[in-house]
Write a structure and sequence with these properties.
The protein has five helices and two strands, in the order ααααββα. It is mainly alpha-helical and 119 residues long. It has one domain. The protein has a two-stranded antiparallel ribbon. β1 and β2 form a beta hairpin. α2 runs antiparallel to α3, α2 runs parallel beside α4 and α4 runs antiparallel to α5. The radius of gyration is 18 Å and the shape is globular.
Length: 119
């Protein structure tokens, strides 16, 4: 019985850690790679790019701007299943998340002594 309790506790702790560790970068990466059918290597590269952007945003205290930008990607992006391409570009060739991306870039620029990093 004690063993069952310990196993269940470990399982719950593992699930809590896994859900707490799911970053906005991982959410966006998963959405993109699901649409684009990423190979393992492509998924690693895509996720690393988003994780780096998230780390930079966090380092410059721009987490809110990052969350807003990635939420836009998640909610406004579209998957072209025929071409297996995920994009936030609309039919008028405008990026629907451009304002959010610019706000993130501005936040990073304002906090950086070197003018920020462009992605």
């Amino acid at each position: 019985m004690i063993r069952t309790i310990l196993v269940n506790a470990a399982l719950l702790l593992g699930l809590a850690s896994a859900s707490a560790g799911c970053s906005r970068a991982q959410v966006v990466c998963d959405i993109i790679c699901e649409c684009e059918h990423c190979s393992d290597e492509d998924e690693i590269q895509t996720c690393e790019q988003f994780a780096t952007r998230e780390s930079v945003a966090d380092a410059y205290d721009c987490g809110d701007a990052w969350a807003t930008y990635t939420t836009c990607i998640e909610e406004q992006g579209k998957c072209d299943e025929k071409e297996a391409r995920y994009s936030t570009i609309n039919d008028n060739n405008n990026d629907v998340c451009e304002d959010e991306k610019n706000a993130l870039d501005s936040c990073i620029d304002a906090a950086s002594a070197h003018g920020g990093a462009r992605f």
